[in-house]
Amino acid sequence: MDASRILADLGILEQAGAGDIEVRSPISGAVIGRVASHTAADVDAALARAHSAFLVWRDVPAPRRGELVRLLGERLRKHKHALGSLVSLEAGKILQEGLGEVQEMIDICDFAVGLSRQLYGLTIASERPGHRMAESWHPAGVCAIISAFNFPVAVWSWNAALALVCGDPVIWKPSEKTPLTALAVQRLMDDVLREFGDAPDGLVSLVIGDREVGAQLVADPRAAIVSATGSTGMGRAVGVAVAQRFGRAILELGGNNAGIVTPSADRELALRAILFSAVGTAGQRCTSLRRLFVQESVHDDTVSRLKQLYGKVPIGNPLEPRTLMGPLIDRQAFERMQDALQRARAEGGKVTGGGRVSVAGLAEGYYVEPALVEMPAQTDIVLQETFAPILYVMKYRDFGEAIAANNRASHGLSSCVFTTDLREAESFVSARGSDCGIANVNIGPSGAEIGGAFGGEKETGGGRESGSDAWKGYMRRATNTVNYSSALPLAQGIDFRLD
Ligand code: UN1
Asked: CB within 6 Å of ligand 1 — which residues?
């Protein structure tokens, strides 16, 4: 696939031709573009423009704001193949997943358009006669979006589609590893803004750069909301900085997601689900399956079947239709994976796979075999999130023990159980079950639909994005008490008057 052709199709060939950031495709290591980073003055100007845009956009009726997002969804439909291909080229995921990522953008646009007519508040019973209480939801302000390399465009859309219908301008700082897909989306958005007609200048913008650009957005009180996706270390710094100025942070950080295979599980279904969630995206989703607890009576059989499947995974160029596993993002990711496997061995693990794979003509890409690691227990390395295709497998005896093991991780993003036993399924999703933001039955932990709220607990950061009522994170709530009587009764029956 020709990178320049795709960049030209998406209208950014020229823009991606010069600049200080060199963009390499993880597929081959080849330079596929160069982009210019923004200065502190540029970021400041983007914030100022976004803030002015807010003062206009907040008064635009929400269904009209929805029209902008509808046009974006239409545009994405037209460019799905080109943008999905660029996602593959820049992030290294297989084309099916690149296209799936753009589909996720289209889905959230559809969702947000409907939402633009459903930003409902409550009516509340007042304790006072002649009074009405209600809740109104208003735009909150500029939303800064900091996204990661592994979902270079979908995460922006979860935030942007909701923020825009909620009345909030957006400023996007993408990962330094994936600025081209961001440029492409911003270009599509610029066309959409023109088509829309009367959107205020600065409503949707992009700032490119390293962590300093992110830090500037995070520190600025004009960014009323900061939605950040990435590592727990990054989230801890962002969370503290935003809290310091009493801004609002939506954090979507790592996950050390587990699955439980019970004796009653539909084994074929479970094996397929495990393979997709542990090996898909080369283990580089925040929702990837990393820990597997298998009941001892089915453990050996499950492990040997998994090993067979692992041995058959087609690894290679993610743009070839047969490939199921593309490269890791870069050398650092490869080294981290190898370090983790080393530590797993030292902690008593038996490692199958995990080595580098050479792919003809793509010598600079970091291709690896997915690793299956049989561990005697949840040692330190198992409890650490390594962003790579490593699946630690452990035995359990009682179901309660498996739930406790699931909940031992410091992250709390996603989790799943494979069972046909109603008691096990229901206890897993109950209050004393999985402590994660996502708890699934008979599907893997990854590949969530946009209709549900997405995010997790503990070191995952607590934020929720995407479906359900996640929109409330992008608006401010006002409680209104209206007295339509001619008396002034006070709440709590307080008597306060001059004689
Ligand atoms: C991420 O890896 O940051 O549920 C997001 C999933 C995708 C999103 C992953 N819909 O796996």
From this structure: 104, 150-151, 155, 229, 285-287, 446-448
